[in-house]
Amino acid sequence: MAERGAKGIVFAADSLAAVAMLAFFITGLAFLSAKTHEDSGAQLLLKKQADDMLAALERTGELPSMNLTALNLSIAATLPDEDSYEIALDYYNYSSGGFAFSHAASAARGNANRSKSVAASQREFVVMANGTVMHYGIATLRVWVG
Amino acid sequence: MKRGIFTSITVVLLAAVLLYLVSSIALFANSMDEVNSALVRTEAAGAQADSAASAIRRLETSAAVGVSFGGNNVTFGQNLSNLAKYRQGLAGLADFLAAYGAVQNVSVNASEASMPRIYLHPQNITLVHSAGKVELVPQNSSASAGSIMGFDVLLLAGIPTPRLHWDQITEAQPESPNALRFHFGLQGTNGTVSDSRVLDRRFASTLRLLDSANQTIAVVQSAPPAALGFDYPPAANNLYLTVILQLNTSPGEAELGKSIVAVDGGAVKKVARVLLS
User: Fold this and answer.
1) What are the tens digits of pLDDT across the range A100-139?
2) What is the pLDDT of residue A111?
3) For B119-174, how does the pLDDT look when each residue is reduced to its tens digit (9 = 90+)?
4) What is the ipTM for the molecules in this complex?
5) Residue B133, SS3?
6) Nearest residue of B to residue A126 by CA position?
């Protein structure tokens, strides 16, 4: 009887170990699966929206126009209402010595909460006047939900 | 005793299988994450290539050659006095992209872009700029040179209106299959001058622009099979040239250079074309 009792304890321990392993496996699976589902799809969408927004502004000529008010109105009208954004424009001048920072401009909708997931896009452009490059510019558009 | 050993081995095997499954899932999840980061890299390289191509296009159409399509006609409008500014601006843009671009390994094929060289598809006609010369060069085929019906060459120059002199000319009947319609018009500071002919595309014809001292200011040449050349003083100011190319088919697209932008984002490499119309 004592031998059978000892066997029972071993089997019970085996079963517990198996159940623990199974629980570990299922928990790991659920965790990793959740991590996969938590992928950057939403982030990618924001990034794509930001890229497309800057591309559209470049195509319409608003980005190189240096008219921040018109640019801000276009972005506000185009991005979904639930999106907040911040557009920053940096202008540089070029000489034989290289590039010198000229000035900056920015506009925003909503409060940038850095704890939120922010997607950023950058686009370089040229500002032309009378067939000459007036400025080389960098537009950075940050977009987040909320 | 044997049963115990058997059970232990079974448990160990089971644990090994479970660990193998867990690690497989982990590897799978990790690979899914890599897909996302690969998408981000691809998107970044695409956006960078598009950004560079758009900036070059704006520079090119603002400073060098504007291209527009209207039916079967293609119009190349260019301020020849601006080409130096264009080249300087392009060199600056290439440096700017390399220094400040979101994906910093951006290169511009300057030999194709700075001339600038424009390819007209699908007719395979090339507009080539070199110092003091503009050439429209078709290929010797029915689809290329054979598609050219004629040229309008219009010049706006800030100089006293010159007189026109044909050095050599071979004309054809309008209904001839070798007929090439040619019109030249010039507006100078004291009036306009023009000439219209039907040339024979098998022979070269040369029109010279002479000033009051009979010095050559510029030369327009039609050469077989249907090429057009315009020679001018490289330092000339206020020289606006418009060439209207008359085709017997619709043009598809005009491209600056050939795939002149290259973005190297490490795992993602991308080339971009600069389409002008």
Assistant:
1) 999 999 999 987 666 568 899 999 999 999 889 999 999 9
2) 78
3) 999 999 999 998 899 999 999 999 999 999 999 999 999 999 999 999 999 999 99
4) 0.80
5) strand
6) B55
Burial class of residue B164 in the structure, from the number of CB atoms within 10 Å of its CB (0-12 exposed, 13-18 middle, 19+ buried)? middle
Q: Which fold has domain A41-145?
A: Ribosomal protein S3 C-terminal domain (3.30.1140)
Decide if B11 is inside a domain.
no
Q: How many domains does chain B have?
A: 1
How much of chain B, in percent, has pLDDT values that exceed 90? 68
Cβ-Cβ contacts under 8 Å, B2 against chain A:
none
pTM above 0.90, yes or no: no
Chain B contacts of A124, Cβ < 8 Å? Answer: 51-52, 55, 96-97, 100-102
CA–CA gap between residue B147 and residue B249 (Å, rounded): 7
Q: From the list A21, A33, A55, which residue is nearest B50 (CB)?
A: A55
B220, B230 Cβ separation under 8 angstroms: yes
Using CA of residue A69, residue A71, residue A77, residue A81, what is the dihedral sign? negative
User: Is the Cβ–Cβ distance between B166 and B205 less than 8 Å?
Assistant: yes
Closest CA in chain A for residue B41:
A44
Beta-sheet pairing, B227-231 with B216-223: antiparallel
Q: Which residue of A has its CA nearest to B29?
A: A36
